[in-house]
Amino acid sequence: KKETPTPIxxxxxxxxxxxxxxxxxxxxxxxxxxxxxxxxxxFGGENLLxxxxxxxxxxxxxxxxxxxxxxxxxxxxIFTLLVxxxxxxxxxxxxxxxx
Length: 99
Hints:
The chain has 2 helices and no strands. It is elongated. It has helices spanning 6-55, 61-90. It has a domain at 30-90. Helix 1 (6-55) packs antiparallel against helix 2 (61-90). It is mostly helical.
């Protein structure tokens, strides 16, 4: 038994193809966006440390080193969480029956 009439199915086919293409692009850019996020945070932290070291080489940068360690831990947690979410989305089996 056919649920959708053929003319309506043919009219919706370009929309389905467009949505599928957008989904493929979205999936392929996820690792790129994670990489840029990580690079931006590391680059910003290094610039902060270099500029603070230029002001006073011994005293001022010390709190910023602790801050960068904290930022690194938070970024590692976020990176792990996003990777777990992406893997969960890719391996989702809604149609499977319980074992």
